[in-house]
Amino acid sequence: MSVREEFDSWAAEGRDRGMEDRHWHTAKHALARMPVEAGDTVVDLGCGSGYALRALRETAEIGRGYGLDGAPEMARNAADYTEDSAIGFLVGDFGELPFADGSVDHVFSMEAFYYARDPIHTLEEIRRVLRPGGTFYCAVNYYEENEASHSWQENIAIEMTRLDRGEYREAFREAGFHVAEQDTIADREIEIPPAEAFPTDNWETRDAMVDRYRTWGTLLTVGVAP
Ligand SMILES: C[S@@+](CC[C@H](N)C(=O)[O-])C[C@H]1O[C@@H](n2cnc3c(N)ncnc32)[C@H](O)[C@@H]1O
Predict the structure, then answer these.
(1) Per residue in 21-75, pLDDT tens?
(2) Are 129 and 68 in contact (CB under 8 A)?
(3) Residues 177, 123: contact at Cβ < 8 Å?
(4) Phi, psi of 151 (to 5 degrees)
(5) Is the pLDDT at 1 greater than 90, yes or no?
(6) 106 lines ligand 1 (CB under 6 A)
(7) Ligand 1: distance of its center to the CA of 202 in Å?
(8) Distance from Cα 96 to the centre of ligand 1, integer Å
(9) Does 126 sit in the ligand 1 pocket, CB within 6 Å?
(10) Residue 153, Cβ neighbours under 10 Å: how many?
(11) I want to staple 146 with a disulfide (CB 3.0 to 4.6 A). Which of 44, 107, 138, 216 is the partner?
């Protein structure tokens, strides 16, 4: 199945907004750490509903935002939700970014990078489009240490690459980035029911849910282009 087939149906079912609601708990902290300045050009890879660029326009007054997504319906929904001519949404693939060398100040991606068919090549593409000193803020919930995420591949027809923290740093370096920071951002907002409520539809034990959200949350790896 293609990215388009998988994620167009998510967009049509309104799951883009559902992801935004869930991912925002930790994505907002990653966005707040980005060294963006007024007037900067920022790209969001796998933008879904496009919330990240709308937020950066408000908080940091970025000059231009480009959201790229492989699913046309995601890009169309994102454009429909955005009343701002400084933000545009494009259909494209992580393997070939439609931006000139050194033309982008910062790149953000939430919960999408692991769908890249060739992660090192995608990182090289990101490095190519970034100006020297530009950053890539790569946030993922699907990663090795986050054990609850391991089963997610069973429900998604696109191949996902599950790396651990060290492998993320190695991949960034192999693609020519400096690794400036790596951290896990806990989700402190999702409600975790009391012990007597378990098992729930999704969780066998409360400990597993605490581990997923409060212990691990989102893995953020930050690369700086030389
Ligand atoms: C799990 S969603 C995350 C969306 C959004 N970043 C968020 O936080 O809600 C992953 C998104 O990445 C897009 N995507 C997956 N693989 C892609 C690829 N190879 N090229 C471009 N977009 C891709 C999907 O269409 C989908 O919208």
Answers:
(1) 999 999 999 999 999 999 999 999 999 999 999 999 999 999 999 999 999 999 9
(2) no
(3) yes
(4) -80, -5
(5) no
(6) no
(7) 23
(8) 15
(9) no
(10) 15
(11) 216
Closest CA to 225 of 132, 125, 137: 132
Specify the residue for token string 């282009």: 225
Give the mean pLDDT of 173-181: 98
pLDDT in tens, 103-158: 999 999 999 999 999 999 999 999 999 999 999 999 999 999 999 999 999 999 99
Q: Alpha-carbon Rg of the chain, whole angstroms?
A: 17
Total number of residues shown for the chain: 226
Structure tokens at 168: 């993320």
Task: Judge if the beta carbon of residue 70 lies within 6 A of ligand 1.
Answer: yes
For residue 21, the number of C-alpha atoms closer than 13 Å in the C-beta half-sphere is 6
CB of 20 shorter than 6 A to ligand 1:
yes
Distances in whole angstroms, Cα of residue 84 to Cα of each of 58, 88, 194: 11, 8, 42
Distances (CA, A) of 21 to 71, 94, 110, 151, 199: 19, 24, 13, 21, 24
Distance CA 69, CA 3 (A): 9
Which ligand 1 atom sits closest to the C-alpha of 23?
Answer: 8
Q: According to the model, what pLDDT value does residue 15 have? A: 93
DSSP 49: T
